Amino acid sequence: MVSSIDSSVGTERKLVSDVPGPKSRALHQRRLATVSAGLTIGFPIYVERAEGAIVVDVDGNQFLDLGSGIAVTSIGHAVPALVDAVSEQVAKFTHTCFMVTPYDSYVEVCEELAELTPGTHAKTSALFNSGAEAIENAVKIARLATKRSAVVVFEHAYHGRTNLTMALTAKNMPYKDHFGPFAPEVYRVPMSYPYRDGRSGAEAAAAAIKIIETDIGATNVAALLIEPIQGEGGFIVPAEGFLPALSAWTTANGAVFIADEIQSGFCRTGDWFAVEHEGVVPDIVATAKGLAGGMPLAGVTGRAELMNAVHEGGLGGTYGGNPVAAVAALATIKTLRDRNLAARAREIGEIAFANLRSLQHDVAIIGDVRGRGAMIAFELVEPGTKTPNAAATKEIVTFCQQNGVITLTAGTYGNVIRLLPPLVISNEQLADGLDVLGAAVRSVR
Ligand code: PLZ
To answer: Contact 253/219 with Cβ under 8 angstroms?
Structure first.
Protein backbone atom coordinates (compact mmCIF):
# COMPACT_ATOMS: atom_id res chain seq x y z
CA MET A 1 0.00 0.00 0.00
CA VAL A 2 1.92 2.97 -1.27
CA SER A 3 -0.88 5.36 -0.38
CA SER A 4 -0.56 4.96 3.40
CA ILE A 5 2.66 7.00 3.56
CA ASP A 6 1.04 9.86 1.71
CA SER A 7 -0.92 12.05 4.13
CA SER A 8 1.32 14.79 5.47
CA VAL A 9 -0.04 17.80 3.63
CA GLY A 10 -3.23 18.69 5.48
CA THR A 11 -6.04 20.80 4.07
CA GLU A 12 -4.95 24.37 4.71
CA ARG A 13 -3.77 27.20 2.51
CA LYS A 14 -0.53 28.40 4.09
CA LEU A 15 2.26 30.72 2.93
CA VAL A 16 5.70 30.46 4.52
CA SER A 17 7.79 32.51 2.06
CA ASP A 18 7.49 35.15 -0.63
CA VAL A 19 5.48 33.93 -3.62
CA PRO A 20 7.28 32.64 -5.59
CA GLY A 21 9.78 31.71 -2.90
CA PRO A 22 13.59 31.49 -3.25
CA LYS A 23 13.67 27.84 -4.37
CA SER A 24 10.99 28.43 -7.00
CA ARG A 25 12.80 31.55 -8.22
CA ALA A 26 16.03 29.58 -8.61
CA LEU A 27 14.25 26.81 -10.53
CA HIS A 28 12.63 29.43 -12.70
CA GLN A 29 16.05 30.78 -13.72
CA ARG A 30 17.06 27.26 -14.78
CA ARG A 31 13.82 26.92 -16.72
CA LEU A 32 14.40 30.17 -18.58
CA ALA A 33 17.79 28.84 -19.71
CA THR A 34 16.60 25.45 -20.94
CA VAL A 35 12.84 25.36 -21.56
CA SER A 36 11.45 26.84 -24.76
CA ALA A 37 10.08 30.35 -24.37
CA GLY A 38 7.04 29.17 -26.35
CA LEU A 39 5.38 27.67 -23.28
CA THR A 40 3.03 29.85 -21.25
CA ILE A 41 4.41 30.89 -17.88
CA GLY A 42 1.35 30.54 -15.68
CA PHE A 43 2.29 30.74 -12.04
CA PRO A 44 5.98 29.92 -11.51
CA ILE A 45 5.78 28.21 -8.17
CA TYR A 46 7.48 24.85 -8.63
CA VAL A 47 5.41 22.02 -7.26
CA GLU A 48 6.86 19.46 -4.87
CA ARG A 49 3.70 17.48 -4.06
CA ALA A 50 -0.08 17.80 -3.91
CA GLU A 51 -2.93 16.22 -2.00
CA GLY A 52 -6.69 16.70 -2.28
CA ALA A 53 -7.20 20.35 -3.18
CA ILE A 54 -3.80 21.50 -1.89
CA VAL A 55 -0.64 22.02 -3.96
CA VAL A 56 2.67 22.31 -2.06
CA ASP A 57 5.62 24.10 -3.63
CA VAL A 58 9.36 23.57 -3.16
CA ASP A 59 9.47 26.39 -0.60
CA GLY A 60 6.80 24.71 1.53
CA ASN A 61 3.95 27.05 0.57
CA GLN A 62 0.53 25.42 0.38
CA PHE A 63 -1.85 26.65 -2.30
CA LEU A 64 -5.56 26.03 -2.66
CA ASP A 65 -6.02 24.61 -6.14
CA LEU A 66 -9.08 26.01 -7.93
CA GLY A 67 -7.82 24.91 -11.35
CA SER A 68 -7.18 21.15 -11.10
CA GLY A 69 -4.44 21.47 -13.73
CA ILE A 70 -7.12 22.66 -16.20
CA ALA A 71 -9.96 20.30 -15.22
CA VAL A 72 -7.81 17.18 -14.90
CA THR A 73 -7.48 16.22 -11.24
CA SER A 74 -11.22 16.33 -10.58
CA ILE A 75 -10.97 13.55 -7.97
CA GLY A 76 -8.23 15.53 -6.18
CA HIS A 77 -4.47 15.11 -6.02
CA ALA A 78 -2.81 11.91 -4.79
CA VAL A 79 -6.04 10.01 -4.27
CA PRO A 80 -5.05 6.70 -2.61
CA ALA A 81 -7.16 4.55 -4.98
CA LEU A 82 -5.39 6.04 -7.98
CA VAL A 83 -1.93 5.98 -6.38
CA ASP A 84 -2.35 2.28 -5.59
CA ALA A 85 -3.71 1.35 -9.01
CA VAL A 86 -0.92 3.15 -10.83
CA SER A 87 1.83 1.86 -8.52
CA GLU A 88 0.67 -1.73 -8.84
CA GLN A 89 0.43 -1.45 -12.62
CA VAL A 90 3.90 0.11 -12.95
CA ALA A 91 5.32 -2.89 -11.08
CA LYS A 92 3.45 -5.36 -13.36
CA PHE A 93 4.13 -3.85 -16.80
CA THR A 94 4.24 -0.31 -18.15
CA HIS A 95 3.76 -0.91 -21.84
CA THR A 96 3.22 -3.48 -24.54
CA CYS A 97 1.42 -1.34 -27.16
CA PHE A 98 -2.22 -2.39 -27.34
CA MET A 99 -1.87 -3.01 -31.08
CA VAL A 100 0.96 -5.51 -30.48
CA THR A 101 -0.31 -7.43 -27.47
CA PRO A 102 -3.49 -6.24 -25.73
CA TYR A 103 -4.46 -6.15 -22.02
CA ASP A 104 -7.72 -6.05 -20.12
CA SER A 105 -7.65 -2.52 -18.66
CA TYR A 106 -7.93 -0.99 -22.15
CA VAL A 107 -11.03 -3.06 -22.85
CA GLU A 108 -12.48 -2.21 -19.43
CA VAL A 109 -12.03 1.54 -20.03
CA CYS A 110 -13.89 1.16 -23.35
CA GLU A 111 -16.68 -0.72 -21.53
CA GLU A 112 -16.95 2.12 -19.02
CA LEU A 113 -17.00 4.73 -21.80
CA ALA A 114 -19.79 2.87 -23.59
CA GLU A 115 -21.75 2.70 -20.35
CA LEU A 116 -21.21 6.29 -19.20
CA THR A 117 -21.57 8.30 -22.42
CA PRO A 118 -25.13 9.29 -23.38
CA GLY A 119 -27.35 6.95 -25.38
CA THR A 120 -28.14 3.25 -25.18
CA HIS A 121 -27.04 2.44 -28.76
CA ALA A 122 -24.10 0.11 -29.46
CA LYS A 123 -20.82 2.01 -28.98
CA THR A 124 -17.12 1.31 -29.42
CA SER A 125 -14.10 3.40 -28.43
CA ALA A 126 -10.47 4.00 -29.24
CA LEU A 127 -7.98 5.43 -26.72
CA PHE A 128 -5.31 8.06 -27.27
CA ASN A 129 -2.88 10.24 -25.29
CA SER A 130 -4.24 13.77 -25.45
CA GLY A 131 -7.38 15.74 -26.11
CA ALA A 132 -6.06 17.04 -29.42
CA GLU A 133 -5.32 13.51 -30.57
CA ALA A 134 -8.85 12.42 -29.65
CA ILE A 135 -10.34 15.29 -31.65
CA GLU A 136 -8.13 14.54 -34.67
CA ASN A 137 -9.30 10.93 -34.60
CA ALA A 138 -12.95 11.83 -34.14
CA VAL A 139 -12.74 13.95 -37.29
CA LYS A 140 -10.89 11.19 -39.19
CA ILE A 141 -13.61 8.70 -38.26
CA ALA A 142 -16.48 11.06 -39.15
CA ARG A 143 -14.94 11.82 -42.55
CA LEU A 144 -14.34 8.18 -43.37
CA ALA A 145 -17.77 7.06 -42.20
CA THR A 146 -19.66 9.78 -44.10
CA LYS A 147 -17.34 10.03 -47.14
CA ARG A 148 -17.65 13.80 -46.71
CA SER A 149 -14.99 16.35 -45.76
CA ALA A 150 -16.40 19.56 -44.27
CA VAL A 151 -16.14 20.10 -40.51
CA VAL A 152 -18.26 22.76 -38.83
CA VAL A 153 -16.79 24.48 -35.76
CA PHE A 154 -17.79 27.49 -33.69
CA GLU A 155 -16.59 30.93 -32.71
CA HIS A 156 -14.54 30.87 -29.48
CA ALA A 157 -13.90 27.11 -29.87
CA TYR A 158 -10.78 25.41 -28.52
CA HIS A 159 -9.90 21.93 -29.70
CA GLY A 160 -6.08 21.70 -29.45
CA ARG A 161 -2.72 22.74 -30.83
CA THR A 162 -1.88 20.15 -33.53
CA ASN A 163 -2.26 21.16 -37.18
CA LEU A 164 -5.84 19.98 -37.64
CA THR A 165 -6.92 21.08 -34.16
CA MET A 166 -5.33 24.54 -34.62
CA ALA A 167 -7.57 24.87 -37.66
CA LEU A 168 -10.53 23.83 -35.51
CA THR A 169 -9.57 26.28 -32.72
CA ALA A 170 -10.86 29.84 -33.10
CA LYS A 171 -8.42 32.15 -31.35
CA ASN A 172 -5.34 33.29 -33.25
CA MET A 173 -3.13 34.50 -30.38
CA PRO A 174 -1.45 32.55 -28.86
CA TYR A 175 -2.60 29.31 -30.50
CA LYS A 176 -2.27 29.87 -34.25
CA ASP A 177 -0.27 32.98 -35.05
CA HIS A 178 2.24 32.16 -37.83
CA PHE A 179 1.81 28.39 -37.28
CA GLY A 180 -0.09 27.88 -40.53
CA PRO A 181 -0.91 26.94 -43.19
CA PHE A 182 -3.82 25.17 -41.56
CA ALA A 183 -5.82 22.10 -42.53
CA PRO A 184 -8.57 22.80 -45.08
CA GLU A 185 -12.33 22.07 -45.04
CA VAL A 186 -12.92 23.63 -41.64
CA TYR A 187 -15.80 26.13 -41.45
CA ARG A 188 -16.52 28.42 -38.51
CA VAL A 189 -20.05 29.51 -37.64
CA PRO A 190 -21.44 31.75 -34.86
CA MET A 191 -21.74 30.39 -31.34
CA SER A 192 -24.62 31.03 -28.95
CA TYR A 193 -23.17 33.49 -26.41
CA PRO A 194 -26.16 34.75 -24.40
CA TYR A 195 -24.30 37.53 -22.55
CA ARG A 196 -23.04 39.09 -25.77
CA ASP A 197 -25.56 38.13 -28.47
CA GLY A 198 -28.83 38.28 -26.53
CA ARG A 199 -30.31 35.57 -28.77
CA SER A 200 -32.37 32.53 -27.82
CA GLY A 201 -30.90 29.11 -28.49
CA ALA A 202 -33.30 28.59 -31.38
CA GLU A 203 -32.31 31.91 -33.00
CA ALA A 204 -28.61 31.24 -32.60
CA ALA A 205 -28.96 27.72 -34.01
CA ALA A 206 -30.97 29.01 -36.98
CA ALA A 207 -28.23 31.55 -37.73
CA ALA A 208 -25.53 28.86 -37.62
CA ILE A 209 -27.57 26.43 -39.72
CA LYS A 210 -28.29 29.12 -42.33
CA ILE A 211 -24.55 29.64 -42.85
CA ILE A 212 -23.91 25.89 -42.95
CA GLU A 213 -26.56 25.39 -45.63
CA THR A 214 -25.65 28.40 -47.77
CA ASP A 215 -21.85 28.49 -47.49
CA ILE A 216 -20.93 24.81 -47.08
CA GLY A 217 -23.91 22.79 -48.30
CA ALA A 218 -25.60 20.28 -46.01
CA THR A 219 -24.48 17.23 -48.01
CA ASN A 220 -20.80 18.22 -47.69
CA VAL A 221 -20.80 18.25 -43.89
CA ALA A 222 -19.00 15.28 -42.33
CA ALA A 223 -19.19 16.54 -38.77
CA LEU A 224 -20.33 19.31 -36.51
CA LEU A 225 -17.87 19.62 -33.63
CA ILE A 226 -18.77 21.55 -30.49
CA GLU A 227 -17.83 21.95 -26.84
CA PRO A 228 -21.23 21.78 -25.02
CA ILE A 229 -19.84 24.42 -22.67
CA GLN A 230 -16.81 26.11 -24.17
CA GLY A 231 -13.68 25.85 -22.05
CA GLU A 232 -10.74 28.02 -23.13
CA GLY A 233 -13.26 30.27 -24.93
CA GLY A 234 -14.55 31.46 -21.55
CA PHE A 235 -17.04 28.92 -20.19
CA ILE A 236 -19.65 30.09 -22.66
CA VAL A 237 -22.88 28.21 -21.95
CA PRO A 238 -25.05 28.24 -25.08
CA ALA A 239 -28.66 29.35 -24.66
CA GLU A 240 -31.13 26.56 -24.01
CA GLY A 241 -32.21 24.80 -27.20
CA PHE A 242 -29.02 25.59 -29.16
CA LEU A 243 -27.38 22.17 -28.78
CA PRO A 244 -30.59 20.14 -29.33
CA ALA A 245 -31.33 22.11 -32.53
CA LEU A 246 -27.83 21.49 -33.90
CA SER A 247 -27.98 17.83 -32.93
CA ALA A 248 -31.34 17.45 -34.70
CA TRP A 249 -29.92 19.14 -37.79
CA THR A 250 -26.96 16.74 -37.99
CA THR A 251 -29.27 13.74 -37.64
CA ALA A 252 -31.59 15.04 -40.35
CA ASN A 253 -28.68 15.74 -42.68
CA GLY A 254 -26.48 12.66 -42.28
CA ALA A 255 -23.66 14.51 -40.48
CA VAL A 256 -21.88 13.35 -37.33
CA PHE A 257 -22.44 15.33 -34.10
CA ILE A 258 -19.15 15.29 -32.18
CA ALA A 259 -19.24 16.56 -28.59
CA ASP A 260 -15.86 17.75 -27.33
CA GLU A 261 -16.32 16.88 -23.64
CA ILE A 262 -12.61 17.08 -22.92
CA GLN A 263 -12.98 19.94 -20.42
CA SER A 264 -16.68 19.62 -19.54
CA GLY A 265 -16.87 15.84 -19.11
CA PHE A 266 -16.50 13.40 -16.22
CA CYS A 267 -18.86 14.98 -13.67
CA ARG A 268 -17.41 18.48 -13.95
CA THR A 269 -20.78 20.10 -14.73
CA GLY A 270 -22.88 17.94 -12.39
CA ASP A 271 -23.63 15.21 -14.93
CA TRP A 272 -21.19 12.69 -16.35
CA PHE A 273 -21.26 14.78 -19.55
CA ALA A 274 -22.42 18.35 -20.15
CA VAL A 275 -24.65 17.39 -23.13
CA GLU A 276 -26.85 15.39 -20.75
CA HIS A 277 -28.23 18.64 -19.31
CA GLU A 278 -30.42 19.03 -22.41
CA GLY A 279 -30.72 15.35 -23.27
CA VAL A 280 -28.48 15.57 -26.33
CA VAL A 281 -27.08 12.24 -27.53
CA PRO A 282 -23.91 12.84 -29.58
CA ASP A 283 -22.81 10.43 -32.32
CA ILE A 284 -19.22 10.70 -31.05
CA VAL A 285 -17.91 11.94 -27.69
CA ALA A 286 -14.27 12.99 -27.23
CA THR A 287 -12.90 12.75 -23.68
CA ALA A 288 -9.57 13.32 -21.89
CA LYS A 289 -8.51 15.41 -18.85
CA GLY A 290 -10.82 14.32 -15.98
CA LEU A 291 -10.98 10.79 -17.41
CA ALA A 292 -7.73 9.59 -15.85
CA GLY A 293 -6.92 11.82 -12.87
CA GLY A 294 -3.72 13.22 -14.34
CA MET A 295 -2.37 10.30 -16.34
CA PRO A 296 -2.41 11.10 -20.06
CA LEU A 297 -5.40 9.37 -21.61
CA ALA A 298 -8.09 10.36 -24.11
CA GLY A 299 -11.04 8.56 -25.62
CA VAL A 300 -13.14 8.65 -28.75
CA THR A 301 -16.44 6.90 -28.14
CA GLY A 302 -19.13 6.65 -30.77
CA ARG A 303 -21.86 4.76 -32.52
CA ALA A 304 -20.46 1.34 -33.37
CA GLU A 305 -21.36 1.69 -37.04
CA LEU A 306 -19.26 4.88 -37.31
CA MET A 307 -16.34 3.72 -35.19
CA ASN A 308 -16.23 0.30 -36.87
CA ALA A 309 -16.40 1.74 -40.38
CA VAL A 310 -12.64 2.27 -40.06
CA HIS A 311 -10.43 -0.36 -41.73
CA GLU A 312 -8.17 -2.44 -39.49
CA GLY A 313 -5.01 -0.46 -38.74
CA GLY A 314 -6.68 2.86 -39.52
CA LEU A 315 -6.55 4.00 -35.88
CA GLY A 316 -3.77 3.66 -33.34
CA GLY A 317 -0.56 5.06 -31.88
CA THR A 318 2.29 3.66 -29.79
CA TYR A 319 1.07 4.81 -26.39
CA GLY A 320 -2.68 5.23 -26.81
CA GLY A 321 -4.50 3.56 -23.90
CA ASN A 322 -1.23 2.88 -22.09
CA PRO A 323 -1.81 0.36 -19.26
CA VAL A 324 -0.77 2.77 -16.49
CA ALA A 325 -3.12 5.47 -17.80
CA ALA A 326 -5.89 2.89 -18.30
CA VAL A 327 -5.84 1.68 -14.69
CA ALA A 328 -5.74 5.33 -13.59
CA ALA A 329 -8.94 5.89 -15.57
CA LEU A 330 -10.61 2.89 -13.96
CA ALA A 331 -9.66 4.16 -10.48
CA THR A 332 -10.84 7.66 -11.40
CA ILE A 333 -14.21 6.49 -12.72
CA LYS A 334 -14.72 4.31 -9.64
CA THR A 335 -13.94 7.28 -7.38
CA LEU A 336 -16.31 9.59 -9.29
CA ARG A 337 -19.04 6.96 -9.03
CA ASP A 338 -18.48 5.80 -5.42
CA ARG A 339 -18.23 9.32 -4.04
CA ASN A 340 -21.08 10.61 -6.24
CA LEU A 341 -18.91 13.50 -7.36
CA ALA A 342 -21.45 14.60 -10.00
CA ALA A 343 -23.79 15.55 -7.15
CA ARG A 344 -20.87 17.22 -5.37
CA ALA A 345 -20.16 19.26 -8.53
CA ARG A 346 -23.73 20.55 -8.39
CA GLU A 347 -23.32 21.51 -4.70
CA ILE A 348 -20.06 23.30 -5.45
CA GLY A 349 -21.86 25.19 -8.21
CA GLU A 350 -24.69 26.25 -5.92
CA ILE A 351 -22.28 27.63 -3.34
CA ALA A 352 -19.97 29.32 -5.83
CA PHE A 353 -22.68 30.84 -8.04
CA ALA A 354 -24.56 32.30 -5.05
CA ASN A 355 -21.31 33.81 -3.78
CA LEU A 356 -20.24 35.23 -7.16
CA ARG A 357 -23.69 36.61 -8.00
CA SER A 358 -23.74 38.52 -4.73
CA LEU A 359 -20.22 39.78 -5.49
CA GLN A 360 -21.41 40.85 -8.96
CA HIS A 361 -24.13 42.88 -7.25
CA ASP A 362 -21.52 44.77 -5.18
CA VAL A 363 -18.91 45.58 -7.84
CA ALA A 364 -19.12 47.17 -11.28
CA ILE A 365 -16.53 45.06 -13.10
CA ILE A 366 -18.29 41.66 -13.17
CA GLY A 367 -20.42 41.61 -16.31
CA ASP A 368 -21.51 37.99 -16.28
CA VAL A 369 -21.37 35.00 -13.94
CA ARG A 370 -21.84 31.70 -15.72
CA GLY A 371 -21.03 28.02 -15.99
CA ARG A 372 -22.59 24.88 -14.59
CA GLY A 373 -21.75 22.71 -11.60
CA ALA A 374 -18.04 23.00 -10.81
CA MET A 375 -17.29 24.70 -14.15
CA ILE A 376 -17.55 28.25 -12.85
CA ALA A 377 -16.58 31.57 -14.44
CA PHE A 378 -17.13 35.29 -14.47
CA GLU A 379 -16.41 37.85 -17.13
CA LEU A 380 -14.66 41.12 -16.26
CA VAL A 381 -15.73 44.31 -18.04
CA GLU A 382 -15.18 48.06 -17.84
CA PRO A 383 -17.79 49.45 -15.42
CA GLY A 384 -21.13 50.19 -17.06
CA THR A 385 -20.15 48.55 -20.39
CA LYS A 386 -19.49 45.12 -21.86
CA THR A 387 -15.98 46.13 -22.92
CA PRO A 388 -13.63 43.29 -21.91
CA ASN A 389 -11.36 44.14 -18.98
CA ALA A 390 -8.29 41.95 -19.36
CA ALA A 391 -6.21 44.18 -17.05
CA ALA A 392 -8.56 43.61 -14.10
CA THR A 393 -8.54 39.88 -14.87
CA LYS A 394 -4.74 39.74 -14.58
CA GLU A 395 -4.79 41.79 -11.37
CA ILE A 396 -7.30 39.44 -9.75
CA VAL A 397 -5.40 36.28 -10.69
CA THR A 398 -2.16 37.79 -9.37
CA PHE A 399 -3.82 38.83 -6.10
CA CYS A 400 -5.10 35.27 -5.67
CA GLN A 401 -1.67 33.80 -6.36
CA GLN A 402 -0.04 36.14 -3.83
CA ASN A 403 -2.61 34.93 -1.31
CA GLY A 404 -2.21 31.24 -1.99
CA VAL A 405 -5.07 30.50 -4.37
CA ILE A 406 -4.63 29.10 -7.88
CA THR A 407 -7.22 30.31 -10.41
CA LEU A 408 -7.21 30.26 -14.22
CA THR A 409 -8.08 32.76 -16.92
CA ALA A 410 -9.93 32.07 -20.17
CA GLY A 411 -11.85 33.82 -22.89
CA THR A 412 -11.31 35.06 -26.41
CA TYR A 413 -10.73 38.53 -24.90
CA GLY A 414 -8.66 37.28 -21.93
CA ASN A 415 -11.23 38.70 -19.51
CA VAL A 416 -12.71 35.59 -17.90
CA ILE A 417 -11.69 34.03 -14.60
CA ARG A 418 -12.57 30.36 -14.38
CA LEU A 419 -12.67 28.01 -11.45
CA LEU A 420 -12.31 24.26 -11.87
CA PRO A 421 -11.92 23.08 -8.28
CA PRO A 422 -11.27 19.44 -7.52
CA LEU A 423 -14.69 17.94 -6.82
CA VAL A 424 -13.38 16.69 -3.46
CA ILE A 425 -12.79 20.25 -2.20
CA SER A 426 -14.39 20.74 1.23
CA ASN A 427 -16.96 23.45 1.95
CA GLU A 428 -14.38 25.16 4.20
CA GLN A 429 -11.77 25.17 1.46
CA LEU A 430 -14.27 26.42 -1.09
CA ALA A 431 -15.44 29.24 1.21
CA ASP A 432 -11.83 30.17 1.90
CA GLY A 433 -11.03 30.29 -1.84
CA LEU A 434 -14.12 32.37 -2.59
CA ASP A 435 -13.18 34.80 0.21
CA VAL A 436 -9.76 35.37 -1.31
CA LEU A 437 -11.30 35.74 -4.76
CA GLY A 438 -13.84 38.25 -3.44
CA ALA A 439 -11.07 40.28 -1.80
CA ALA A 440 -9.16 40.15 -5.09
CA VAL A 441 -12.11 41.46 -7.10
CA ARG A 442 -12.78 44.23 -4.56
CA SER A 443 -9.11 45.26 -4.64
CA VAL A 444 -9.33 46.25 -8.32
CA ARG A 445 -9.69 50.00 -8.76
N1 PLZ B 1 -10.68 20.30 -26.31
C2 PLZ B 1 -12.37 21.43 -24.95
O3 PLZ B 1 -10.21 22.11 -23.25
C4 PLZ B 1 -7.47 21.35 -23.71
C5 PLZ B 1 -5.43 23.61 -23.20
C6 PLZ B 1 -4.20 24.09 -22.53
P7 PLZ B 1 -5.02 18.45 -24.96
N8 PLZ B 1 -7.60 22.55 -22.95
C9 PLZ B 1 -6.41 23.02 -22.26
C10 PLZ B 1 -3.26 24.72 -23.52
O11 PLZ B 1 -3.15 25.96 -23.52
O12 PLZ B 1 -2.66 23.97 -24.31
C13 PLZ B 1 -8.61 20.96 -24.61
C14 PLZ B 1 -9.94 21.37 -24.35
C15 PLZ B 1 -10.95 21.01 -25.22
C16 PLZ B 1 -9.43 19.88 -26.59
C17 PLZ B 1 -8.37 20.19 -25.76
C18 PLZ B 1 -7.01 19.68 -26.11
O19 PLZ B 1 -6.58 18.76 -25.16
O20 PLZ B 1 -4.99 17.27 -24.04
O21 PLZ B 1 -4.41 19.70 -24.37
O22 PLZ B 1 -4.47 18.14 -26.32
So the answer is: yes
Q: pLDDT digits over 172-207, tens only?
A: 999 999 999 999 999 999 999 999 999 999 999 999
Domain at 83-338: CATH architecture: 3-Layer(aba) Sandwich (3.40)
Q: What is the pTM of this model?
A: 0.98
**CB of 127 shorter than 6 A to ligand 1:** no
State the distance from the centre of ligand 1 to the C-alpha of 29, rounded, in angstroms: 27
CA–CA gap between residue 221 and residue 253 (Å, rounded): 8
Question: Tens of pLDDT along 108-160?
Answer: 999 999 999 999 999 999 999 999 999 999 999 999 999 999 999 999 999 99
Q: Verify whether ligand 1 is closer than 6 Å to residue 159 (CB atom).
A: yes
Q: Are 14 and 55 in contact (CB under 8 A)?
A: no
Class for the domain spanning 22-75+341-443: alpha beta
Mutate to test the pocket of ligand 1, among 137, 159, 262 (most ligand atoms within 8 A of CB): 262
Domain ranges, ordered by start, for the chain: 22-75+341-443, 83-338
Closest CA to 193 of 208, 174, 215: 208
**Cα 160 to ligand 1 centre (Å):** 5
Å from CA of 16 to ligand 1 middle: 33
